[in-house]
Amino acid sequence: MALNNLTLKAVSLYDEWMKNADPRVEGYPLMSSPLPQAIILGSYIYFVTILGPKFMENRKPFELRQIMAFYNFGVVALSIYMAYEFLMSGWATGYTFRCDLVDYSRSPMALRMVRVCWLYYFSKFIELLDTVFFILRKKNAQVTFLHVFHHTIMPWTWWFGVKFAPGGLGTFHGLLNCIVHVIMYTYYGICSLGPAYHKYLWWKKYMTTIQLIQFFLVTLHIEQIYFMDNCQYQYPVFMFIIWLYGFLFLILFLHFWYNAYTKGQRLPKHVKNGIVNGISTNKTE
Predict the structure, then answer these.
(1) N or C: which terminus of the chain carries fewer CB neighbours within 10 A?
(2) Which family does it belong to (predicted)?
(3) Do 255 and 224 touch, CB atoms closer than 8 A?
(4) Could you tell me how many helices (H) and strands (E) the chain has, helices first?
């Protein structure tokens, strides 16, 4: 009886909470409830941690260079498009980079922002293929807790962002992430073309710097809300989540930078050999 009452209360709270959802995202795929994405992400975690490694245990690694080249350059094209849409729906057409509220109207600009927010959310499911490629190529050392956590937490948290607050200052890290992904997946794409193209990857050493700049800007931008007196952003809790995420990864990348470049410590073999996104930058492989 107590369990039934608790369940009823939870359902009642969920229904009440969902009344505040943005009606403009009704009908968008995966937006009806968190359940569809929970199933997808649960299946992803199960595959990359248990089923996939077991399936590949007695098999040779798959040769996926052509598929991965298509995938990586496809993500580049998608990231360019999303960055453009983020800019045209607010960040280059009126946003102040300070207290930018969510526009809940049905103006063309506001609806354009809703569409790109959903597309960015959906793109995070496409990027789950990063880990699938690791497994199929038997690069299991790349499937770290941090990697899986990152690929899981992004779509999960963005569901709530799109469902309740598709726009405003909470989308800045989406814009920035798209720009960074243009650079990163271009790098991965060139890697996937084979050793003959690795001579064009002279800028590999700047990749960590680019990531550091990304997380620094995300953290700096989002923490402004705590220093603005009258910013009436509709969901302040989202700001804390974004800040926490950006700050956490800023610390992790600074730690990597310190050990790899300042202290000069030897990196693990799979990193030392330049394996990125499941593709080795070592010409001898």
Answers:
(1) N
(2) Belongs to the ELO family. ELOVL7 subfamily.
(3) no
(4) 11, 2
pLDDT at 1: 67
267: three-class secondary structure by DSSP: coil
Strands 275-276 and 279-280: antiparallel
Of the given ranges (113-127, 162-176, 207-221), which has the lowest mean pLDDT? Answer: 207-221
Residues taking part in catalysis: 150
Give the integer Cα–Cα distance in Å for 152 and 134. Answer: 16
Whether the per-residue pLDDT at 281 is higher than 60: the answer is no
The first and second tokens of residue 160, run together, are 């709530």
107 burial class (0-12, 13-18, 19+ CB within 10 angstroms)? exposed
Task: Please give the Cα distance from 185 to 79 (Å, whole number).
Answer: 9
Could you give the CA distance from residue 242 to residue 222 in angstroms, rounded to a whole number?
Answer: 7
Q: Is residue 13 part of a domain?
A: no
Give the phi and the psi of residue 278 in degrees, each rounded to 5.
Answer: 85, 0
| Joined tokens for residue 149 | 């956590």
Asked if the structure places residue 229 within a domain, the reply is no
Radius of gyration of the chain (CA): 21
Q: What does the alpha-carbon distance between residue 150 and residue 133 come to, in Å, rounded to a whole number? A: 16
- For the record, the structure tokens of 249 come out as 């990864």
Determine the Cα–Cα distance for residues 78 and 72; give it in Å rounded to an integer: 10
Name the residue with tokens 């650079």. 183
In total, how many domains does the chain have? 1
CB count in 10 Å sphere of residue 93: 10
**CA-CA distance, 244 to 248, in Å (whole number)?**
6
Ordered DSSP codes for 182-244: HHHHHHHHHHHT-GGGGGG-GGGGGHHHHHHHHHHHHHHHHGGGGT-TT---S-HHHHHHHHH
Its domain, for residue 123, covers 34-224+235-280
Higher pLDDT residue, 285 or 125?
Answer: 125
The verdict on residue 144 lying in a domain is yes
